[in-house]
Design a protein that fits this description.
By secondary structure, the protein is largely without helices or strands. The protein is 0% helix and 0% strand. It is elongated. One of its GO terms (molecular function) is serine-type endopeptidase activity. This is CUB and Sushi multiple domains 3. Keywords: Disulfide bond. One of its GO terms (cellular component) is extracellular space.
Length: 52
């Protein structure tokens, strides 16, 4: 596999996400593969939301 891409969306996208929503995405790769994440749109509520 030389070219693989996918899209990760929050529940309800493109609408607003629910209050107190906790989303976790797990990405699993074959041994020896790496990953490049690119955020094209990232919007959060100041002070309350964050990315770990």
């Amino acid at each position: 596999m030389t070219d693989f891409s996918s899209v990760i969306l929050s529940p309800g996208f493109p609408g607003n996400y629910q209050s107190s929503l906790d989303c976790t995405w797990r990405v699993q790769l074959p041994i020896g593969f790496g990953i490049h994440l690119q955020f094209l749109n990232f919007s959060t509520e100041p002070v309350h939301d964050y990315l770990e």
